[in-house]
Design goal:
CATH topology of the largest domain: outer membrane lipoprotein receptor (LolB), chain A
Structural class: mainly beta
Strand order of the largest sheet: 6-5-4-3-2-1-13-12-11-10-9-8-7
Shape: elongated
Number of helices: 4
Strand content: over 45%
Largest sheet: 13 strands, antiparallel
Radius of gyration: 30 Å
CATH superfamily of the largest domain: Lipoprotein localisation LolA/LolB/LppX
Number of strands: 23
Number of domains: 2
């Protein structure tokens, strides 16, 4: 029994010693890798990095530039075949204008694309300060890569996506990586190759990067690398469409007086004082949430957007009181913003159901008036129902 216990303890000790030795070896490999790129002290002094290059895609070589920031930001413009593509990432989320998708306005990156931008935003590889950034690295071992002895390291990012990196066992610089990439927004495996390492201000950068995935081949030939240039952080923010820019007067925090129309008295009566927040959500969307009493409690979620095929605004109103959703369409002019739900109902039902119309008037920088009307005769006549007066909150 004692012999068995001794053997078990010895096995655990040997395993532990082996793991500690491998962890120490990994730390040494990464330390030498960082040093081969110029050293941690020099890289810690870098706040931003601009790359100017020639980029080859679809057998066409064009200009390319990209900015990277210490906190994971990335912005680039490139020619991808026949289209001009813009990419931006703030370290967590991003956007792109990519006409290859037949989308000419900025759109949000999907999760597969976000994973790609974690890779694009690296100053060189994921091993720099990897522990602080929640990146797990495991030493797989040694291998032979086309006659080059390499260390094989497996990387797992915080999003649980994995990569395999091959570092030259002599120079400790990267030779190849295998990771998930994207092709027209769809996830696909890719191989990246690094070559032509040059020193810039004491820091070592691969000036040649080739990436292959599916039948694609992309080549980046760097011409110039500049450090610590100013970076406009507005680049990373999702741009809004021109139509949403035209609705900027709606954005903000508001104090709202709610009035109801009493036909018998032929006047408005104040029924509630509340607040409302209207904020920009994405390229083509403003969102408003408002809660008020008009005898009953009305919780409304309102989305303002623009419908390009019909060249008009679309407003969706969800009223939690009756779980009703209405879709309105309308236009913006110099003095008002008017939209109704006439086109949202079949023609044969008009006159049998009530219609609604929202009309913004008296638009100034600090105040707005929204009048809500109803019609019971297919929009021939409109009767006032509610009036909401918005006054901008002062900071």
């Amino acid at each position: 029994m004692k012999r068995i216990l001794y053997q078990m303890v010895l096995a655990v000790m040997l395993t532990t010693v082996g793991l500690l030795a491998k962890a120490q070896e990994l730390d040494e490999i990464i330390a030498k890798h960082i040093e081969a790129h110029g050293g941690a002290e020099k890289w810690d002094a870098i706040e931003s990095m601009k790359i100017t290059a020639r980029f080859t895609a679809f057998s066409v070589e064009e200009d390319f530039f990209a900015y990277k920031t210490k906190d994971g930001g990335y912005y680039s413009e490139l020619e991808l075949g026949k289209y001009h593509v813009v990419e931006a990432f703030d370290g967590e989320k991003g956007w792109t204008i990519d006409p290859w998708q037949e989308i000419t306005f900025p759109r949000e990156l999907n999760s597969a694309e976000q994973n790609v931008f974690y890779q694009k935003a690296e100053f060189f590889t994921p091993f720099f300060h990897h522990k602080e950034r929640g990146i797990n690295v495991v030493l797989v071992g040694k291998d032979d890569l086309d006659g080059v002895e390499v260390f094989v390291l497996k990387v797992t990012r915080p999003n649980r996506r994995t990569e395999t990196w091959y570092l030259d066992a002599q120079t400790y610089l990267e030779v190849k990586s295998e990771s998930n990439w994207v092709d027209f927004a769809y996830r696909t495996p890719a191989e990246s190759y690094f070559d032509d390492f040059r020193e810039v201000d004491g820091l070592v950068i691969p000036f040649f990067i080739e990436r292959t995935f599916l039948q694609r081949n992309r080549i980046l030939q760097i011409q110039e690398v500049q450090f610590n240039l100013p970076v406009d952080t507005s680049w990373f923010k999702m741009p809004r469409s021109q139509q949403m820019s035209d609705l900027a007067f709606l954005e903000g925090e508001w104090k709202v007086n709610v009035e109801m129309w009493y036909a018998r008295a032929n006047r408005w009566y104040l029924v509630d004082r509340t607040t409302s927040g209207i904020e920009f959500q994405s390229t083509n969307l403003l969102k408003e949430e408002i809660r008020y009493n008009n005898i009953f409690v009305r919780n409304k979620l309102i989305h303002y957007s623009f419908y390009t095929p019909e060249n008009n605004y679309r407003i969706t109103v969800y009223d939690a009181f009756n779980s009703n959703i209405e879709v309105y369409s309308g236009e913006l002019n110099d003095s008002s913003f008017v939209f109704d739900n006439l086109s949202a109902h079949p023609t044969d039902t008009l006159g049998t159901i009530p219609l609604s119309k929202y009309e913004w008037k008296r638009i100034t920088g600090d105040s707005l008036v929204l009048s809500i009307h109803e019609s019971y005769d297919a929009a021939k006549n409109w009767s006032p129902v509610e009036k909401l007066t918005y006054v901008r909150k002062k900071e």
